[in-house]
Task: inverse folding
């Protein structure tokens, strides 16, 4: 399956077995056909909004529209988690944004979003840049730190 068609399959149950009430009605979807306001609200409600351009709607809309692998978690009609990636479905999947609503954190949603993202990416390696508060999170899930990662920001000249 190539999720770039932006389809939104029916919900499938998910979440930790035996977890407490917030995740009882949890399901996951694939696709970027999302309401922008709901996405912006989730970014704020997870705190990821502090490090993303949530006040620039056009840029955020482009981020969602042009991402070709977006997995979301839903508690009923409430958007509670997102994994927003760019992938070639063969070699690399850049997981740019991983966010879980604060009220729903520590219920296995982040892990499940990563698991599904990796699964949908086929043989691709998942690559990401950790937020300061999440540096202890990724090793816990088995990710390996890469000591030679490099970035080139738009404001930084190419010499
Ligand atoms: C980081 C984040 C996505 C984790 O999502 P989550 O659904 O709460 O995490 P999970 O429930 O899947 O956690 C899996 C395990 O990691 C642990 N864990 C969760 N957050 C952690 C953290 N910040 N540091 C260390 N361990 C953490 C959980 O306790 C759990 O452990 P267990 O398996 O022993 O029970 C979520 O806290 C979040 O959205 N944070 C704000 C936005 C952010 O920083 N995103 C990351 C950008 S790189």
Result:
């Amino acid at each position: 399956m190539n999720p770039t068609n932006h389809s939104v399959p029916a919900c499938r149950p998910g979440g930790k077995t035996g977890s407490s009430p917030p995740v009882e009605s949890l399901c996951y979807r694939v696709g970027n056909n999302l309401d922008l306001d709901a996405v912006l609200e989730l970014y704020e409600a997870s705190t990821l909004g502090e490090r993303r351009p949530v006040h620039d709607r056009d840029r955020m809309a482009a981020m969602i529209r042009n991402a070709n692998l977006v997995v979301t978690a839903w508690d009923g009609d409430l958007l509670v988690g997102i994994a927003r990636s760019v992938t070639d479905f063969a070699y690399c999947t850049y997981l740019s944004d991983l966010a879980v609503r604060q009220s729903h954190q520590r219920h296995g949603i982040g892990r499940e979003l990563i698991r599904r993202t990796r699964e949908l990416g086929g043989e691709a390696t998942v690559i990401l840049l950790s937020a300061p508060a999440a540096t202890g999170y990724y090793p816990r899930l088995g990710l390996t730190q890469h000591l030679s990662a490099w970035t080139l920001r738009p404001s930084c000249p190419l010499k």
In short: The domain at 9-14+23-140 is CATH 3.40.630.30 (Aminopeptidase). Strands lie at 12-13, 26-30, 69-75, 78-87, 92-100, 125-127. Helices lie at 36-46, 57-66, 109-120, 137-140.
